[in-house]
Design brief:
The protein is mainly alpha-helical and 196 residues long. It is built from 10 helices and 2 strands; from the N terminus they run H-H-H-H-H-E-E-H-H-H-H-H. Helix 2 runs antiparallel to helix 6, helix 3 packs across helix 4 and helix 4 packs across helix 6.
């Protein structure tokens, strides 16, 4: 499901937000994978990173000559801080972050949610029968399957240094805060139990 469904959604949404061609979905996916999934293949990582930089440099140049409406790149280029336009490096950094981090975390979150729902037909039924539980369920999926928690060691670094994934810390008193099923009195599982 992740390859056929989850991995297409964030690429298309982010491409639309940035105002870049949707037809480049496969290239964007390849670049993101090249940057994030090849820790030992430095040449591929370097090539993917270079492709992203060159692509966004060309997009920035195009927006300088042909500004667009409802386009995040144009909006970023017009952003001012204390009366001065933000530097192009900032624009490039935000675009890079949107593409790489936005795509990776979103497809991970969608994929984890699909995996959980495939493993738990009782949760699928409860959500079908009680669609008002979806907002709570989404928060719980993000807490339980945080897409930014690469490992236990990195989780601590990310939580403290970057402030990401802070929701994971809200239930450290639980016996197993890193599991979805250990939340009997909280969030999605707690809400599902209250429906019965």
């Amino acid at each position: 499901a992740a390859g056929d469904y989850a991995q297409h959604i964030p690429v298309r949404v982010i491409a639309t937000m940035l105002g870049v061609p949707l037809e480049m979905e496969e290239e964007f996916t390849d670049w993101v994978r090249g940057v994030l999934e090849n820790m030992t293949d430095m040449e591929r990582r370097k090539r993917a990173r270079q492709n992203i930089i060159e692509f966004f440099l060309a997009q920035v140049k195009d927006r300088a000559e042909n500004p667009r409406e409802n386009d995040l790149i144009t909006e970023l280029m017009n952003t001012e801080v204390e009366g001065k336009k933000v530097p192009i490096e900032y624009v490039l950094g935000v675009c890079n972050l949107m593409l790489v981090a936005g795509v990776d975390t979103t497809w991970s979150a969608i994929g984890s949610t699909l995996w959980h729902m495939a493993q738990h037909p009782e949760h699928r039924k409860q959500l079908r029968d009680n669609p008002d539980l979806w907002p709570t369920a989404i928060e719980e999926f993000l807490r339980a399957y945080s897409p930014i928690s690469f490992s236990q060691a990195f989780r601590v670094i990310l939580l403290v240094a970057m402030g990401l994934g802070f929701i994971k810390m809200t239930h450290v008193a639980q016996a197993r805060p890193d599991t979805f099923s250990g939340l009997a009195n909280h969030g999605f599982v707690g809400a599902l139990r209250n429906v019965r």
